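Reading a protein record of the kind used here takes only a little practice. To see the layout at work, look at the sequence and tokens printed below.
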Amino acid sequence: MSYLGKFFLVLGIAVSIATSALASDKGTAKEAEAMVAKALAEVKANGIESSTKTFSDPKWRDRDLYVFVGKFDGTIIAHGANAGLIGKNLNELKDADGKTFVREMAEVAKTKQKGWVDYYWSNPTTKKVEPKSTYVTAIPGQDAYVAVGIYK
């Protein structure tokens, strides 16, 4: 193989490795759904009040994935990335496009039990507003939902 051929082979491998490394910095839809299932199991085993306190623990974070819990009225009762949001009613909060996404999350959980909601939100890793999709699931027997989002 020529010098140029070897150069392009090495370059191709380096680009492939770099692309894989970048892709692994972000959580996937399947990982978000799995984290929601794990959080629901935590709520079922320990109750909502105890569980929402633990969701701030770093063990509930995975790269850009974190758990948050909202009541159907828009009040955030747990947030793994921003404890300052706990206790705040975000029902009227709008994203960059004017979408009341917290209200939509509650509506999806109430009417469909689970589903995805798309909006724009600040990524705690990059500190930039990015497109996000959040998987929400109603918590059985509660007027609340558990959610985990992915940045696209």
Notes: The two ends are 40 Å apart (CA to CA). The beta strands are 61-62, 65-71, 76-79, 114-122, 129-138, 144-151. The longest strand covers residues 129-138. The longest helix spans residues 3-23.
